[in-house]
Specification:
This protein is α+β, with helices and mostly antiparallel strands and about 240 residues long. It has a domain of about 160 residues: Glutaredoxin. Helices cover about 30% and strands about 20% of the residues. A hairpin with a 2-residue loop joins strand 2 and strand 3. The radius of gyration is 21 Å and the shape is globular. The protein starts with 8 loop residues before the first helix and ends in a 32-residue tail after the last helix. The C terminus is likely disordered.
């Protein structure tokens, strides 16, 4: 932890007001960025994708669940994995509370992974989550949206991830991301946005809180402190109302 000068309240207020000006500019910059994001052109999705869900096989259009907007979190959990990625699990811990608000604002949120549905359902039950989660097992969906990579791709020189060609040595069979889609009144589906790597980080409310804590994220590598929520060794004891 860096050393901090100890100052008077008046000196602290001067420093805090100076920082506030930068925070306000960052907020205005975020608003401008959001406007540019909404202004992106769209791509019609003509390819047919099928997903396994607790409701049976569904198309991409059916994942919208009657709404016009769909957010897909590309959750890292491959076909042979027994548990989901700890980092994706950290993000997923923040999703359930948003569902009611999103659904009543014409937005459906679902996770999608290549793991078979039975593995997804077992892990979801372990974690106590309720958000929708579909399996793209046997589908090209994850490969087409550049979050899954074949052994042939990984054996080559480069992979394409986060809109960049990267050395395949930096790749993995599964990587995280987020994609947005729109369905019009005629049932046509459009891809409107995707974000990868640290792009979806703002969905993780815990990080936003830590950014305001005295020690910040207190990490030596990106989210190196994160564990699945049932794997922390120092779980607090139950109180009298637990």
């Amino acid at each position: 932890m860096q050393a901090h000068p100890i100052v008077s309240r008046e000196e602290w207020l001067t420093a805090r007001r100076a920082l506030l000006l930068k925070e306000k500019e960052a907020t205005r910059a975020r608003d401008r960025l959001n406007a540019e994001r909404l202004a992106l052109p769209w791509v019609r999705v003509d390819k047919a994708y099928l997903f396994d869900t607790p409701k049976g096989r569904q198309t991409l259009a059916e994942l919208f669940d009657g709404r016009s907007q769909l957010i897909v979190y590309h959750f890292m959990m491959g076909p042979d994995w027994q548990a989901g990625c700890p980092g994706c699990s950290f993000l997923a811990d923040h999703l359930d509370g948003a569902l009611a608000h999103l659904n009543h604002h014409d937005v459906t949120l679902t996770a999608v992974s290549r793991a078979p549905l039975a593995k997804i359902e077992a892990y979801k039950a372990r974690m106590g989550w309720h958000f929708p989660w579909a399996s793209a097992f046997g589908s090209d969906f994850n490969f087409d949206y550049h979050v899954s990579f074949s052994q042939e791709e990984l054996a080559g020189d480069e992979i394409t991830y986060n809109f960049t060609n990267l050395p395949s040595s930096e790749g993995h069979d599964e990587l995280p991301g987020l994609s947005a889609f729109y369905r019009d009144e005629q049932g046509q589906v459009f891809h409107t946005y995707s974000s990868y790597a640290r792009g979806p980080e703002e969905l993780i409310g815990t990080l936003m809180i830590l950014d305001r804590a005295p020690k910040g994220r207190n990490e030596t590598g990106t989210m190196d402190f994160v564990r699945r929520h049932d794997e922390y060794e120092d779980k607090p004891g139950h109180g009298c109302c637990g």
